[in-house]
Structures are given as structure tokens and as C-alpha cells.
Design a protein that fits this description.
Elements: E1 6-9, H1 12-15, E2 24-29, H2 50-67, E3 68-77, E4 82-83, E5 86-87, H3 90-102, E6 105-114, E7 130-137, H4 152-163, H5 172-180, H6 185-203, E8 209-214, H7 224-236, E9 238-243, E10 252-255, H8 271-281, E11 287-290, H9 297-304, E12 308-313, H10 316-327
Parallel strand pairs: 1-12, 2-3, 2-11, 6-10, 11-12
Antiparallel strand pairs: 3-7, 4-5, 6-7, 8-9
The structure holds S-adenosylmethionine.
The site of S-adenosylmethionine has 23 residues, from helix 1 and strand 12.
Length: about 350
């Protein structure tokens, strides 16, 4: 039976047992939070005790570990809850349990910052506006493509350079300072040539940025590598400090809580966050599984990014809606539009 690109109506603690071991590249899911909602059909979430809830989650999780390839990863999004006016920290208890029971490594606790959190009336607590996405790996051979994650940050950086007057403003200050400096005619000519060169490197994106230090204008550099620069200034009248580096890919991701018109599901996670995680942890044609797939956000994001998908959901109403969403989804690369 070909199970790819399908959503199965069923209980994941039963359905997952039917799949072969080491067959999935990424499992990404948001299980029902503890005592938060009634999704019906006897699923996980409304157990009487925290322990019972966690044990049910671990049962499903054990299957997830079996199914995941050595190069794969498992990402779990869980929200916290106030019990008797205190945060229960259930997501973190779950993550600690996973590390202890399954000997997986937690490589990141990616924090989703909600740009439009639900306002609460409680004047004695701040508004909860974050949720963790725990990224677990099975072995050190895990696939990880940091360049693909939030890759538009790099594009933005290049486009903002292009937009700053075709980059012609870059280094203007240094040309003026060189003119004013006490460097000899030859030293000035050499410095201008080196300045032209480094500006081209910035414009082509080879270099993040640079600084120039000019004799008797800028303060003297000190020791270490700076000592080498000091000698360069003495000999040539200037030095250029090249700054390499890409945009930092941090363990936080900002996105509003999404509500899709007509979606019957009350707790949808943002497609944008899921897309970024899929890009980070998989390649085209890899298999992405969501064992609590609700309205199908994971499957939609996977399809858009040309990954294979597989969903399991206990409530048939959500499965019908997820199927509609999938039918409307083109499996083509998402184009980022910059305004
Ligand atoms: C938090 S929601 C997931 C929402 C989803 N991420 C989305 O964007 O639409 C959790 C889902 O798990 C389903 N569920 C609960 N217990 C289940 C089980 N044992 N097997 C499969 N699905 C289950 C619920 O019906 C609910 O739709």
C-alpha cells in the first residue's frame, strides 16, 4: 500500500504501528495540549492526570522514534498551561522525559514568538506569547540545512544593499576622509584602489561589511591581529578590516497566530513556521509525517515545498478540511516577495 501523500483517519497510537521502521525523514507535530480542548473521538489531551497524559504522548512518541531515519528528526510543539495559577511546565517535563527515556538529543528549543497573542484580562500576569518547538535528533548524522532556514534574510540583506543608491553610497565617507588625510599622493592612490576593491566585494555579497582606518584620522589599533594592522597603517597609511558572516540564524521565530477563514480547527499552527522547519530539516522528496495533523498545516507546507507528506488525524471532519486545503495547494516553491 502506498502511504505517501495521504491523510489517514485514525488513532496514531494504532496507525503508526503499521509503518516500517527507519522510513521517515521528519516528524513534526503539535499534539493536543493538556486539558485545553475537546477534539472528540477519544483522542489524547483530556486525561485526568498530567502523568496519564504524558504517558499517552510517550506511547505515540516511541513509535515516532522507531519510524524516524538515523538522519531524521522529530519536532514537537507543545503549549504550556496555568494549573491553579501556576504554569505547569508540561512541555518541558515532556522534553526532559524524552531525553531520559528515549536517549534522543535535543538540539534546539526553537521559540515561536506570537506577534498577536491572545489578550488575557489577568492583571497579575504577563500575556503568554511564546511556545516551544523541541527539535530532537536520533543520531549525530542528522540532516540540517541552516542556509535554507529563513533564507530570505540573506536575500533581504543583498537587496537592501542594492537598494541603498545602487550601493554607490558605500564607503563615501572613507573617500572623503582619504582626501582630507595627510597621506602621500601614492598612498592615497593605493588606498583608493583597495577601497574600490572592498566595496565591490560588499556589493557582490562576498563580504558582509568593512571598516577602514586611516593614519592620523582614526585611533590606533592595539595588539594581536590589530598589531598587524598597526604595522600596515604605519607602512601604507591605511588598513582595511573585512567583516565576513551571514545573518545569524537564531533559535527564535516570529509569526502571528493564524486563523484561516472556514477552518473548523480551533488550534492551527502557523504554516510559515512549519515551512521554515521543513526547509531546515529536509530536502525535496523527503518524507514528512504529522501524527496529530488536525487541519493539515504540516501536509500543506510539505506539499508546497515538494516534500512527500503523511498525516494521521482522529477527527474525520478535520481530515476532510485538510484534504480540501491540500487540493488547493500547488506543489511549487514558495516565492518570497519583498516590498
Ligand atoms: C493541536 S491539534 C493539531 C493542529 C494542527 N497542527 C493544525 O495546524 O491544524 C491536535 C490534533 O490531534 C488530534 N488527535 C488527538 N488525539 C489523537 C490521536 N490519538 N490520533 C490522531 N489524532 C489525534 C486532535 O483531533 C487534533 O486535531
Amino acid at each position: 500500500m502506498d502511504l505517501m501523500n495521504k491523510i489517514i483517519v485514525g488513532d496514531s497510537s494504532v496507525e503508526l504501528k503499521k509503518f516500517p521502521s527507519n522510513s521517515i525523514d521528519l516528524i513534526i507535530t503539535s499534539p493536543p495540549y493538556f486539558q485545553q480542548r475537546e477534539y472528540g473521538f477519544g483522542g489524547i489531551g483530556n486525561e485526568k492526570s498530567e502523568m496519564e497524559y504524558l504517558n499517552n504522548l510517550y506511547q505515540v512518541f516511541a513509535e515516532c522514534v522507531r519510524l524516524t531515519k538515523k538522519t531524521g528528526s522529530i519536532v514537537i510543539n507543545l503549549g504550556d498551561k496555568y494549573l491553579d495559577s501556576s504554569l505547569s511546565l508540561i512541555p518541558y517535563k515532556f522534553a526532559i522525559g524524552v531525553i531520559e527515556k528515549f536517549k534522543l538529543k535535543l538540539i534546539n528549543n526553537l521559540t515561536w514568538i506570537k506577534l498577536n497573542p491572545t489578550p488575557r484580562q489577568d492583571k497579575r500576569k504577563l500575556v503568554q506569547s511564546t511556545e516551544p518547538f523541541f527539535i530532537f535528533i536520533k543520531s549525530n548524522d542528522y540532516y540540517f540545512n541552516q542556509d535554507a532556514y529563513l533564507d530570505y534574510l540573506e536575500l533581504l540583506k543583498i537587496s537592501s544593499k542594492k537598494n541603498s543608491g545602487n550601493g554607490n553610497g558605500i564607503g563615501k565617507k572613507y573617500y572623503e576622509l582619504l582626501d582630507k588625510s595627510d597621506l602621500s599622493k601614492e598612498e592615497k592612490a593605493h588606498a583608493r584602489k583597495e577601497l574600490d576593491k572592498v566595496i565591490t566585494e560588499v556589493k557582490t555579497g562576498e563580504l558582509e561589511s568593512f571598516r577602514m582606518k586611516i593614519r592620523n584620522i582614526h585611533s590606533q589599533p592595539f595588539g594581536g591581529q590589530e598589531g598587524g594592522r598597526k604595522m600596515h597603517i604605519e607602512k601604507h597609511g591605511f588598513t582595511i578590516i573585512r567583516i565576513y558572516g551571514k545573518s545569524l540564524k537564531k533559535d527564535v521565530i516570529e509569526s502571528p497566530v493564524e486563523s484561516i477563514r472556514g477552518n473548523p480547527h480551533p488550534a492551527v499552527y502557523p504554516e510559515y513556521v512549519i515551512q521554515q522547519i521543513i526547509k531546515l530539516l529536509t530536502k525535496e522528496n523527503d518524507i514528512v509525517l504529522d501524527p496529530f495533523c488536525g487541519s493539515g498545516t504540516t501536509c500543506v507546507a510539505a506539499k508546497m515545498l515538494k516534500r512527500k507528506y503523511l498525516g494521521i488525524e482522529i477527527n474525520p471532519e478535520y481530515v476532510n478540511y485538510a484534504q480540501e486545503r491540500l487540493n488547493q495547494t500547488e506543489d511549487e516553491q514558495i516565492e518570497m516577495v519583498f516590498i
